[in-house]
Amino acid sequence: MADEKKSKQRDGSMVFESMYPLLALMLILVACVDLCDAATVVDVYRLVQYDISGVPFGSRFSSLNHHAASLSFQRGADLSRSVLILPLRELDLGFLQDYISQKQSLGGLLILLPQTLRPGNIGGGSVLSETQGFRKLLAQLEKLLVHGNIPFPVYFAFENEETDAMLADVKKNDALGQQATATTGGYKLVISVSEPRKIASPTITNIQGWLPGSRAEGDSNQLPTIAIVASYDTFGAAPALSVGSDSNGSGVVALLEVARLFSTLYSNPKTRGRYNLLFALTSGGPYNYEGTQKWLKSLDQRMRESIDYAICLNSVGSWDNELLVHVSKPPDNAYIKQIFEGFSNVAEDLGFQVALKHKKINISNSRVAWEHEQFSRLRVTAATLSELPTPPELLESAGSLSDTR
């Protein structure tokens, strides 16, 4: 490989210092025929590990030093010292689910993802149709791995010529019953890293911007404020691959575009509105919108009380021509009516639909399903604009590996 590529791999092989932002590691594929005669470096991404109320999820294991195996292995074979290479396009979810639930011994798992799922990779026609199928399958796989306690190392990588050639050889040998060992030869997958360390108090960073409105002549009253908010954090099976193009990259992009347009409008006193505009990018969205709560409580009380209403943007990059306005306050609330009527009028002009969905907040439940609920808990009127028809479960729809469009 080129020196530049090797340098890039070395930079990525840093020690994990967090349970959450795990970086890409190096997977060294050593081809052995009697003696090792070749080695290839491939980018791999480790399965996330995290705790909820002291209960471990994901995988606590990271190091690998085992021979490769494929789904062509002989049934009943001992895989405790083998790394199972599993292409997503050949995934048997039931097999993997049974393997995990029965706690069968496995040296490690390497999941190969199609190049079409690489962030930023855009295809069309039949490629797009195939990719949609992969996304659905990957979402199911991710749910299985993220919500379980996996007793072996799990890594993700993207298919390329090296992995294709390796897998073809491994399949051939496995089909013949020639399981790779130190004496019979084969491919060995090696990752050497220190054990990750838990961060006791993860950093929450919020970013805000402010466009002051214009008072009418002789008006000494404080101007009301409209807040536009979007959460920017993601959560997925492999943090380095969890770009969250839709959840919630689309919300962030929409907020920045609205801020850009109104910044131009408000730069001229003659076109400045009678509202102050408050923009906020908040952290901790997948974790009950903790960043939003922290940001709201840090605001000056007069500022918070001046907010007529807040619009939260979440997963608005829908392929469909419909968005929903989720609210906690009754639909007959004056500001809720104003918000919904405003969106409805614009939607009609643009040729898509907007619907209103009301869900009361259960104060006794610590779960915060929508970002606007953090506002409602502090008696600030707010709504969430989203393509999602129902509130996602904890850590779901928060930037999975399949959310790369």
From TrEMBL:
CDD domains linked: M28_nicalin_like
InterPro entries reported for this sequence: EF_Hand_1_Ca_BS, Nicalin
Any Gene Ontology biological process: regulation of signal transduction
Main localization of the protein described in the UniProt heading: endoplasmic reticulum
Keyword Nucleotide-binding: no
Signal peptide feature range: 1-38
Localization of this protein: Endoplasmic reticulum membrane
An example Gene Ontology CC term for this record: endoplasmic reticulum membrane
Keyword check for Endoplasmic reticulum: yes
Mode of membrane association: Single-pass membrane protein
Keywords: Endoplasmic reticulum, Glycoprotein, Membrane, Signal, Transmembrane, Transmembrane helix
Similarity section: Belongs to the nicastrin family.
PANTHER family: NICALIN
Name listed for the protein in its UniProt record: (rape) hypothetical protein
